[in-house]
């Protein structure tokens, strides 16, 4: 079954390997995505909070060039895998918000979060406390709405989540988050946040990174990850669930993903496991592809 992946930090990965593996996107990432039957994917450039605007530009331009050179990836469906550039943490934007958002859009960025886990000039990260958006952050949301760039709330604090959902004229997406109702992790969404997401026709991309699924190392499995999907289906319905894998197997030799989803090459294991859990083919298609596609198609 074809899959739409809302989050993977591949832009940063290929940028970090730009000298030793200049063809890493095609030679390393593509074969695994092909095996996993990935149809559309976000290629994410992530910034922790210390990077400036020039650093952001350099990484985006490198990724944009590699996509344009690739025989496998394209911004439309003309090649094997359709992709778009996404940003995790726009810490480099400290002034001239409208111009910088327009620049990102002009270079194929179609989705972005204001912050990573820390504070920056726009927003407060989920690990940095709980406070409102800055005045610059409000301008950023308005600028993203204006150019038609999707807004990701996965790393912001809860106060920022409510601010963004209130200010944005477009639905919001948590591209790679799970739920506090099962595991009270600072990166997860509370039940009230889930209800706001549903009321605003938003989307949550569930994430199978093992330490986001459970603290119990004996239960960090694909089956336990599906419990997150079960919970969301019960709370907000099947139409608001998607996938934001955030695979880290290419970044760290330590096991980062739940057993059974060790890399994107094994993405079809999720399809089979959902079927075994009793999900219908229509429900699986919505979770794996169509919900994300319907949400993102106006941006792509």
- Principal-axis shape equals globular
What is the beta-strand fraction? 5-15%
Cα Rg: 18 Å
Number of DSSP helical runs: 11
- The sequence of SSEs as H and E is EHHEHEEHEHEHEHEHHEHH
| pLDDT averaged over residues | 97
Number of strands: 9
* Low-pLDDT sequence parts: none
Q: What does the largest sheet look like?
A: 9 strands, parallel
Measured distance between first and last alpha carbons:
21 Å
Helix content: 40-55%
Structural class: alpha/beta
Summarize this structure as a short list of keywords or feature phrases.
300 residues, alpha/beta, nine-stranded parallel sheet, 11 helices, 9 strands, globular
List the helices and strands and how they pair.
Layout: E1 3-5, H1 10-16, H2 24-36, E2 38-46, H3 53-69, E3 73-74, E4 81-88, H4 97-106, E5 109-113, H5 135-147, E6 150-152, H6 158-167, E7 172-174, H7 191-199, E8 203-206, H8 210-213, H9 222-236, E9 241-243, H10 268-277, H11 281-296
Parallel strand pairs: 1-2, 2-4, 3-4, 4-5, 5-6, 6-7, 7-8, 8-9
Helix pairs in contact: 1-3, 4-5
Give an overview of the whole structure:
By secondary structure, the chain is of the alpha/beta class. It is 41% helix and 13% strand. The chain has helices spanning 10-16, 24-36, 53-69, 97-106, 135-147, 158-167, 191-199, 210-213, 222-236, 268-277, 281-296; strands spanning 3-5, 38-46, 73-74, 81-88, 109-113, 150-152, 172-174, 203-206, 241-243. Strands 1, 2, 3, 4, 5, 6, 7, 8 and 9 form a nine-stranded parallel sheet that branches. Helix 7 links the parallel strand 7 (172-174) and strand 8. The longest helix has 17 residues, at 53-69. It is globular.
